[in-house]
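Sequence only, no structure available. Ideas?
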Amino acid sequence: MTMKPLDLFGVDALLGDEERDVQATVRRLVDDRLRPQLPEWFESGTLPREVARELGGLGLFGMHLQGYGCAGTNAVSYGLACLELEAGDSGLRSFVSVQGSLSMFSIHRYGSEEQKQEWLPRLAAGEALGCFGLTEPDFGSNPAGMRTRARRDGSDWILDGTKMWITNGSLADVATVWAQTGDGVRGFLVPTDTPGFTANTVHGKLSMRASVTSELVLDGVRLPASAQLPGAHSLGAPLSCLNEARFGIVFGALGAARDSLETAIAYAGTREVFDRPLAGYQLTQEKLADMTLELGKGMLLAIQLGRIKDRGEITPDQISVGKLNNVREAIAIARECRTILGANGITLEYSPLRHANNLESVLTYEGTSEMHLLSIGRALTGHAAFR
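Reply:
I predicted one. Tokens follow.
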């Protein structure tokens, strides 16, 4: 009798019925509808916009938000959905994460009632797509240095600047853009058909290929006063949105690791080397056992952080602990699984190397590993070493 890796940790017993149902539903969607097409999307470097309708129809966009057509699930259910999406491909989880935890969350938390009514129901249904413009070509870890500016012109705002590495940028109908003003950092909702707004797709990527990444250029974009997010008064607003997205990554990266590990176990059981299954060799079992330990520990950490988040008590430093550990371990698992597959592992027929390539991006976006290390260090010592 064989066991699934996470069965050794009794993970299902830690989840409620609704949480298990959400996870099973998303896994079926990924396995039945999306997984067969993922190698083609990865190879062609695209993710069709039509996927949004399917994901929206299942209630995955902004699923942890309340009202406006959102499902209103708890944090653990959202995390489990991210895990199953990323078990397919990091691009799928990123697609949902940017839509729900960045674009929709920014509107839900900081928008006016008019902005919420205008955008959230359509975004939740996948009828409209959003993106989140914070990162700039020269300002990733230090968003406070952003050069994008918004200046008053009568009752209007004029925005000028460039944003880079923006997921869904070329697909989006609305962009949440953060800009410096005379009164600090403020957020603006920019319909992407506004004159002066351009989204240029980034090509030639070696990672996150089943995902659309863009450069946003704002050249004299004129917006009415009603485009400003009234509840966002400082850089703390976009950073709070990033914490929402990072939480999804805590679970999501484990999906890539679990899929890699399950793929390697299945392969090792059928691949014969010197007239016996690869799975029967001690070195192979050592690899599988070590990877299972790290996957299980990461899963227990993710669930614990989810419970803390559902109590409304989670801190940014705790999210940093989760993202740092789980992404770091996930990429190590994906790489090790590729070694078990040997030469077959470099093809798109098998997922581990595709996951490893994607996790190279996950390792550095939504906060690099170095920044999360220093955030944890600051929490422990009281000294901000990155300033």
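Strands lie at 130-133, 149-153, 156-167, 174-181, 184-191, 197-201, 213-223, 272-273, 276-277.
Hope that gets you unstuck.
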